[in-house]
Write the structure tokens for this entry.
Amino acid sequence: MPDAATPLVFHAQAYAEMIGNAYDGYPLEACGLLVGKGSRVHRFVACTNEAASARVYTIPGRELLRAELAAEAEGLEIIGVFHSHTHSEPYPSPTDVAQAPDPGWFYVIVSLKREAPEPRCYRIRDEEISDVPIVVG
């Protein structure tokens, strides 16, 4: 499992799709899954925010399962989750930390608070938050 110092590396198309999804979901939080291997994102899977909220997100279990099965079929796995913050900083909220389902995942938050989107990545283990660099290429 990559550590917090290991950057999360996005395929350019997956990164662009994730940023586009953040804007598509506005004014609600958008969310999606990061599919890849190790610390490399090969594909972004947009998901429905079942909570339909500007403050929290919930990925439907059926969409998570579908993404897991598709990733497995490609020899990949879900390595993280993305969601947007529409009016706040790109930092995990107490709710984000409490709901972090997998200590091995990358947690990407894209803030739409300012003129340009601000993506940040974290690891969340035992309620401890570590910054992770993002690389696109």
The first helix runs from residue 12 to 25. The longest strand covers residues 77-85. The helical segments are 12-25, 61-73, 94-98.
